[in-house]
Amino acid sequence: MKHVDEFRDGRLARVLADRIARAVEPGRHYRFMEFCGGHTHAISRYGVTDLLPASIETVHGPGCPVCVLPIGRIDNAIALARERGAILCTYADTMRVPAARGSSLAKAKAAGADVRMVYSAADALRVARENPAREVVFLAIGFETTTPPTAHAILEADRAGLANFSVFCNHVVTPAAIANILESPQVRGIGTVPLDGFVGPAHVSCVIGSQPYEFFAEEYAKPVVIAGFEPLDVMQAVLMLVEQVNDGRHEVENEFARAVTREGNAKAKALVAEVFELRRSFEWRGLGEVPYSALRIKARYERFDAEKRYDIVYRPVLDNKACECGAILRGAKRPKDCKAFGTVCTPENPLGSCMVSSEGACAAYYAYGRFRDREAA
Amino acid sequence: MCLAVPVLVVKRHDGEDAIIDAGGVRKQVSLALVPEAREGDYVIVHVGYAIGRLDPDEALKTLALFAGMEPAA
Ligand code: SF4
């Protein structure tokens, strides 16, 4: 496929690996966090770590939308379908996220709740149009890539005067989460997670541009290189990060210039600004309450806000005690540090959310067996 | 859900929808967020919506960068 295969070329990967090996300074250790699950996936799938010198460590971040959705919000969604008789529409990945008491949306569906998998927010609108006598709620999750489509769907519903459609909004924003990781006690305090730089999100940055990262590259003195989701993109970004660290620079650089500009997608940003505003605080699975890290629907569109329509009350629920997702999402632990990994917890039967989506760190490790390679090495 | 590859815009319909080709698989997506996209462009699609256009010149420059060559002017 054009614009894909060239960025997976094995020969070029070795050229890049060679240049990275020459760039690292002897005796120096480099720890780079890839914020996005898409990068975690690429690193595991293509074995990027095997091509990197031992002095470079990749640390997985919290950029998997499914992984950071707190249990209590899934419980709220299940209750909408079960107790309020609504048709609950959601993306495929959300279906298997473990909720309280061993439940999930998939299990609620099997037990008779009207939960429907949709491919896009537009599909959820279609369900509402086709079922005028029923209430239809779209469980919206995700970072800046999925937010503009949700905004578009709400504006369409407004235009069409769709009275039976609403959105249970769980959209989160990326820059706040990165700042939270940098400020978490593990990172700031005793320094168990010293990060030397970030591989910045690919598709999120298509929407928000590279500009929002400038603040914390400066504030926290950490380099950021925005990278595409193909393996060569990740390797090039690692090389650029190594060079920044060696030079003592901390700038925002853009490896993914083929799709990311400094300003991002103006149209998408305008729709989001029209419909959403920041919440004062939001709970992330694994990170806890993060200030100004999520969006809610503005008062002007509140008739499409499921939280208002159904008076949804959020109750935090603790994760399974064995699950290390929280530490993994902060980069403080790796999937193989979890006792449940691959035993009690597998993609077929996830105990924690990191094992659900293919972008989750635990699922990526499990699917591509990288953990075994490293252990054998 | 964030894994997406650039896809080719094959046919624009009236309004905001278009048919795209992803390695032989055709699908309908919305161009509401990238209204400037034309047939023959590559776009990045997320959950049924194109969110950005791919710049083929920048793609070539990045490939040149991988090979350690000076980017073509
Ligand atoms: S392996 Fe399962 S239980 Fe352990 S941290 Fe990962 S998702 Fe949680």
Question: Can you walk me through this structure?
Answer:
The complex is a heterodimer of chains A (377) and B (73). Chain A is an alpha/beta fold and 377 residues long. The longest helix of chain A has 17 residues, at 231-247. In chain A, helix 1 (10-23) runs parallel beside helix 12, helix 2 (37-45) runs parallel beside helix 16 and helix 6 runs parallel beside helix 7. Chain A is built from 17 helices and 13 strands. Chain A has a domain at 4-61 and 193-254: HypD, alpha/beta domain 1 (Rossmann fold). Helices cover 39% and strands 16% of the residues of chain A. Residues 371-377 of chain A have low confidence and may be disordered. In chain A, the strands form four sheets. Chain A has a five-stranded parallel beta sheet with strand order 2-1-7-8-9, with helices on both faces. In chain A, strands 4-3-5-6 form a four-stranded parallel beta sheet, sandwiched between helices. Chain A has a two-stranded antiparallel ribbon with strand order 10-13. The radius of gyration of chain B is 14 Å and the shape is elongated. Helix content of chain B is 15%, strand content 40%. Chain B has a single domain, classed as Roll (SH3 type barrels), CATH 2.30.30. The model of chain B has no long low-confidence stretch (mean pLDDT 87). The A-B interface holds A 1-4, 6-7, 12, 15-16, 19, 36-38, 41, 63-66, 91-93, 119-123, 142-143, 145-146, 148-149, 152, 203, 206-207, 228-229, 232-233, 236, 255-260, 265, 267-268, 271, 357-359 and B 1-6, 8, 22-23, 30, 32-35, 42, 44, 46-49, 51-56, 58-59, 61-63, 65-68. The complex binds iron/sulfur cluster (SF4). Iron/sulfur cluster (SF4) is lined by residues 322-325, 328, 335, 338, 340-341, 345, 350-352, 354-355, 362 of chain A.
